[in-house]
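Progress note, sequence design subtask.
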């Protein structure tokens, strides 16, 4: 049985159209598959996952930047300011001062005080030795020195250690001056039985004048 010519022609046309569509789709698959493989091969493996960051890098911020001003190396050149050389000249204080200081000398003592004749108290002279006339002799020496002898020289009964000028309170300077004038070596406060308005001289055997 023969098919009609018109139906066969339609079947062939449909097959051709299907084949053409299949060919186009296959061509498209081959084309896009090849381009995708080449692009991946040319790019690094991590290039697609790493995107350029628009903000500052945290790694670069954590690394300290080197100082823009170079550190000055220690200067080895000698200082322009001259140093002061130690003085070899001896100090005037050390040169003038001897190595061993001399012992301190005592200041000169003031001279004995001199009592004017008008201010001197009266005196009494007593002899406490066996030598006769000793009291009169010393009384005359005191008068020549400007002293006023009260009463007559007499003997002193009692034991006296050494020749002494006895003085009442307030007459020490006068007693020292009288002792120098008549050559007596000791002055002492007046005894209870002596008068308190004058000096009392008692001469013993040690008196040499």
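Output:
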């Amino acid at each position: 049985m023969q098919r009609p010519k018109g139906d066969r022609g339609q079947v062939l046309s449909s097959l051709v159209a299907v084949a053409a569509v299949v060919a186009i789709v296959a061509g498209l698959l081959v084309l896009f598959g090849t381009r995708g493989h080449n692009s991946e091969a040319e790019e690094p493996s991590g290039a697609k996952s790493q995107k350029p960051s628009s903000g500052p890098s945290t790694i670069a911020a954590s690394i300290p930047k080197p100082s823009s001003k170079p550190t000055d190396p220690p200067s080895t050149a000698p200082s322009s300011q001259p140093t002061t050389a130690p003085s070899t000249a001896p100090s005037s204080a050390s040169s003038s001062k001897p190595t061993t200081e001399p012992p301190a000398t005592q200041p000169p003592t003031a001279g004995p005080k001199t009592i004017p004749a008008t201010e001197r108290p009266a005196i009494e002279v007593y002899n406490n030795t066996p030598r006769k006339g000793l009291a009169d002799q010393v009384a005359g020496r005191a008068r020549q020195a400007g002293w006023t002898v009260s009463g007559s020289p007499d003997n002193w009964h009692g034991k006296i250690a050494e020749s002494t000028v006895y003085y009442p309170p307030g007459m020490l300077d006068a007693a020292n001056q009288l002792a120098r004038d008549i050559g007596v070596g000791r002055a002492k406060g007046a005894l209870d039985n002596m008068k308190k308005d004058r000096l009392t001289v008692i001469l013993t055997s040690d008196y040499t004048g």
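The first strand starts at residue 123 and ends at 127. Work on this subtask will continue into the next period as scheduled.
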